[in-house]
Amino acid sequence: MESCPTLRQFMAGLRKRNPGQKEFHQAVQEVAADLLPFLADHARYRDQCLLERLTEPDRVISFRVSWTDDAGNVRANRAWRVQFSNAIGPYKGGMRFHSSVTESILKFLGFEQIFKNSLTGLPMGGAKGGSNFNPKGKSPAEVMRFCQALMTELHHYIGPDTDVPAGDIGVGAREVGYLFGQYKRLTHTFTGAITGKGVDFGGSVGRTEATGYGAVYFMREMLKSAGQGLEGKTAIISGSGNVAIYCAEKLIQLGAKPITLSDSSGFIHDPDGIDLEKLAWIKDLKEVRRGRISEYADHFKCTFSPGRPWQVPAQIAFPSATQNELNADEARALIDNGCIALAEGANMPCEADAQHLLRSNILYAPGKASNAGGVAVSGLEQTQNAQRIYWALPEVDDKLQTIMHTIHQKCLTYGQNGGPRPDYVKGANIGGFIKVANALEACGVV
Ligand code: NDP
Q1: 294-299: Cβ within 8 A, 24+ apart
Q2: Which of 69, 203, 261, 443 is buried deepest, with most CB atoms within 10 A?
Q3: Which residues are catalytic?
Q4: Which helix (H) or strand (E) segment is 133 a member of?
Q5: pLDDT by residue (tens digit) across 260-282?
Q6: Is the domain of 339 the same as that of 243?
């Protein structure tokens, strides 16, 4: 019978096998710190070498994408699909287009996706993909040619029962449309092989809003468990993309007051609050005109500052831009300024030291729990596609709220630590792990 390695031993091996992949190391360390003690107490799982198996992707597909820009220059980018685990369902996870994309980033995202997808209760395995292609400044025709070139290779590896990509940073409704169009052209099929599609061609109502809305529903659950509500709370949000915009929208609808948004150039601070009218202007700015958030400050006469919004006093916070966008000093500032709860809209937005501080001082929800609403509604899109039906918005939103409630309950069940507040990280890690572990055990050593 095997004994469990210590965290130090386990991480030394992982670092050796995956040199230089610091984001992947960070994501695994957080999970392993919770799972190794759990495994030590559960011989049934311990003897299956589950953590070692789960931290090794089923496969990593890496390929060149050649395309031509508007000036006729030939360009080449690298793309990946990391198929991490299909223990509980077909691989599922978004595609990211950003100049910073590396294999390490996609492996951390794919690894977290295993636990997130399990928490939703839907039959989805974990995957992630993307490219170091930078969509900023590219014409729509260039973006289309890139998407078509990428799908020309990717289509060999995906399908409704195999692997179902979706959007992420830099991959919104426009890019998903181009990717799906090329997939159809190459396979002569119309299936739910990609989610986040437009509602006119197989998409689910509510998918666009789902990640941001879901993060707010999760925050509502956390506050409720602490005897509080959203009404009247000031909120700081980072990012001004899909997640941030719909997080702000649901906060406004539920009576809270979002006062910041950001992009990679800086953040706006509007002490009067962003209301639905201002948000409509932001949607046009970001989704149609593809402008910068600084334009909001000029238009609505508030401040725009370089950097990030975490020094602005507020009661609740939603980091919703990218990984490692909140450090320990910023976490300390949030706590000192009276922030009582933080729900991650982005994946791993808090550095490890920041997470440690937040976890032990305030209500803190890790992305794999609080931003699971997006993939959950993607799962509902797959169901609707398979049944060739469409559900109406109230039905989808109702299911989303139920799923976020259930994830919160799972976090409470597995996240008790005898302290003054639940440990949502531990709850999400163990709550997400058990179903995957049971499936791995049942399917034998494969
Ligand atoms: P978008 O591309 O729509 O928006 C990303 C936003 O974050 C933009 O405002 C962007 O600013 C900013 N941003 C991106 N990279 C950086 C950076 N390095 N530094 C500062 N700001 C940055 O992406 P999404 O809203 O879809 O995704 C945001 C986060 O949420 C990601 O972590 C993603 O993985 C996660 N997520 C998304 C889901 C979804 O359904 N879309 C589901 C679950 C998680 P700029 O325009 O200047 O680059």
Answers
A1: 294/265, 294/266, 294/268, 296/261, 296/268, 296/270, 297/268
A2: 261
A3: 128
A4: none
A5: 999 999 999 999 999 999 999 99
A6: yes
* For the CA of 100, the nearest atom of ligand 1: 18
Residue-number span of the structural domain to which 184 is assigned: 59-190
Tell me if 295 sits within 8 A of 257, measured CB to CB: no
Domain boundary among 365, 385, 417: 365
For residue 415, is it within any domain? no
- How many whole angstroms from 437 Cα to the centroid of ligand 1? 31
Percentage of the chain with pLDDT > 90?
96
239-262, pLDDT tens digit by residue? 999 999 999 999 999 999 999 999
Number of helices (H), then strands (E), belonging to the chain: the values are 17, 13
The predicted structure's pLDDT at residue 439: 97
Probe target for ligand 1 pocket from 102, 169, 288, with the most ligand atoms within 8 Å of CB: 169
- Show the ligand 1 pocket: residues with CB < 6 angstroms: 167-170, 172, 211, 239-244, 263-264, 320-322, 345-347, 371, 374
Nearest CA to ligand 1 atom 22: 264
Considering the entire predicted model, what is its pTM?
Answer: 0.98
Contact 240, 262 (CB under 8 A): yes
Number of domains making up the chain:
2
